[in-house]
Design goal:
Elements (H helix, E strand, L loop, with lengths): L1 H74 L2 H5 L16 E6 L7 E2 L5 E2 L2 E2 L6 E3 L1 E4 L4 E4 L3 E13 L9 E12 L4 E13 L4 E13 L4 E6 L14 E6 L1
Antiparallel strand pairs: 1-4, 1-5, 1-13, 2-3, 3-12, 6-7, 7-12, 8-11, 8-13, 9-10, 9-12
């Protein structure tokens, strides 16, 4: 009887253990499936965030490059824009301040020889981008004439171009450009700005040089631009070579 009872007890407990193990295994499988689904969702979320981050960086880079391009494209005309000589850009707050923006005159107005090295450039005062206000331009002497005492920002850009058939005596061509102040009351010429540049003579080359500075000028002062090689100065358009001043 004792052995029979023990066997019956084992036979009665075995189904319950199998059921318990089944439930445990099913719980483990459910947990594993839940973990897999959670990881899958996290992976998708990370991919979405990564995509948004890359798109944001790409948009920022494009916007920055566009802004830089716009800034670079406007640098060579900011002087004329600032002083209101481009159509529709007049700053009414500066209408009462002297300002002048001169562009290089056509080849019909040759430079005047100062000495064997330097020549005074002739300018255009009222065509294209050129214009003057409370200044005068002395055509006979190719000079911008100050009409009011004060501190002025004076600027100059010269663009040189060496053609293929230009005969250079040296491998590099030395170029000089200056802004000269002539004070009639002292009968004295002073170089306000001087630019030294050189270009290779191995073919067609082009180079622009720019200079600017603030100077105290009195009424009646003449401002002139002298260059060493006027035949190499680019006259192709108003953006290449210009000269001006404005009261600050």
């Amino acid at each position: 009887m004792g052995i029979c009872n023990k066997t019956e007890v084992v036979q009665c407990e075995a189904p319950e253990l199998d059921a318990l193990r089944f439930e445990e295994n099913r719980a483990v499988l459910v947990l594993l499936d839940h973990c897999r689904e959670t990881k899958r969702q996290e992976c998708h979320a990370r991919l979405a965030v990564g995509f948004l981050l890359i798109a944001s960086l790409a948009f920022f880079s494009f916007f920055r490059m566009t802004a830089q391009d716009n800034t670079l494209s406007s640098k060579h005309v900011d002087a004329t824009l600032e002083h209101g000589f481009l159509e529709g850009q007049t700053d009414r707050r500066q209408d009462d301040k002297p300002r002048a923006h001169l562009t290089l005159a056509s080849v019909c107005s040759p430079a005047v020889e100062v000495d064997r090295r330097m020549h005074t450039l002739a300018w255009e005062k009222d065509a294209g981008l050129a214009g003057i206000y409370t200044f005068e331009y002395n055509t006979a002497n190719q000079a911008l004439v100050v009409q009011q005492d004060g501190h002025y920002n004076v600027y100059l850009q010269i663009t040189y171009r060496i053609p293929h058939d230009f005969n250079c005596s040296l491998p590099r061509k030395q170029l000089i450009s200056t802004v000269v102040r002539r004070r009639l009351s002292y009968n004295l010429d002073t170089e306000l700005m001087m630019i030294y540049e050189s270009m290779a003579c191995d073919g067609q080359n082009m180079k622009s040089v720019f200079s600017a500075g603030v100077y105290e000028l009195e009424k009646g002062t003449w401002l002139m631009v002298n260059v060493s090689d006027p035949e190499l100065v680019d006259r192709s358009n108003d953006m290449k070579t210009y000269f001006g001043a404005y009261l600050i």
